[in-house]
Amino acid sequence: MLLTIDVGNTHTVLGLFDGEEIVEHWRISTDARRTADELAVLLQGLMGMHPLLGDELGDGIDGIAICSTVPSVLHELREVTRRYYGDVPAVLVEPGIKTGVPILMDNPKEVGADRIINAVAAVELYGGPAIVVDFGTATTFDAVSARGEYAGGVIAPGIEISVEALGVRGAQLRKIELARPRSVIGKNTVEAMQAGIVYGFAGQVDGVVHRMAKELAADPDDVTVIATGGLAPIILGEASVIDEHEPWLTLIGLRLVYERNVSRL
């Protein structure tokens, strides 16, 4: 089995693959203070519950693929693979790793590993041209050319960041549940804030994707728009430009990158 780990700024998503099929997944909070030993205990607790894995840490794991937007967590996970999975091939996505996707950026090293991994999966699953919209701590829009190149993207404040900012900066506002309101015109403060978040972000997605698609392809209708990320379901029903929803896009990309690199280890 292949263990894939996607470390984001807010959450870490883990997926367990049996071949090409994801058979289990977990979502935990990202804590940059956790040590390698703490992470190993956490992994053992999660995977020990799965019937296809053994009781000991590492039982049933044939490979590991990791990407992280948090350097300190990547450092500790590197130590986890060394100390607790020493005999298991591990691929950590960083400069030098073979992805199969050329990066057309002024400085390719500054592009988040998760964004490149999303592009890898998008090319494999849907081909190019494509736009990946990832609803995480930030909302990112990543463009993939018709030739399967990472062409660049857009970074905007994420949904939860915006909700928190309203609660902090608005004297009479508070943090709210992220849910669709009864209507666009809110009948109370909570519904008004929910409407602003849900329909405001849906409008942002439609507007940004529309402009990106015009730059990416001669016919914008040829561009496949893929939504992913933990907060995507909140916007899916309201944004008109999204063609596909793939919640495990990053984990699939990690599996693909592992397969492209494991023979070189």
Instruction: State which percent range the strand residues make up.
Output: 15-25%
What does the radius of gyration come to?
Answer: 19 Å
What's the SSE pattern?
Answer: EEEHEHEHEEEHHEHEH
What gap, in angstroms, lies between the N and C termini? 17 Å
Fraction in helix: 25-40%
Q: What's the count of strands?
A: 10
Taken from the alpha-carbon principal axes, the silhouette is globular
Textual characterization of the structure:
- With 265 residues, the protein is an alpha/beta fold.
- Helix content is 37%, strand content 23%.
- The protein is built from 7 helices and 10 strands.
- Helix 2 (71-84) links the parallel strand 4 (63-68) and strand 5 (90-92).
- The longest helix is centred in the last third of the chain and has 28 residues, at 189-216.
- The protein is globular.
- 38% of the residues are buried.
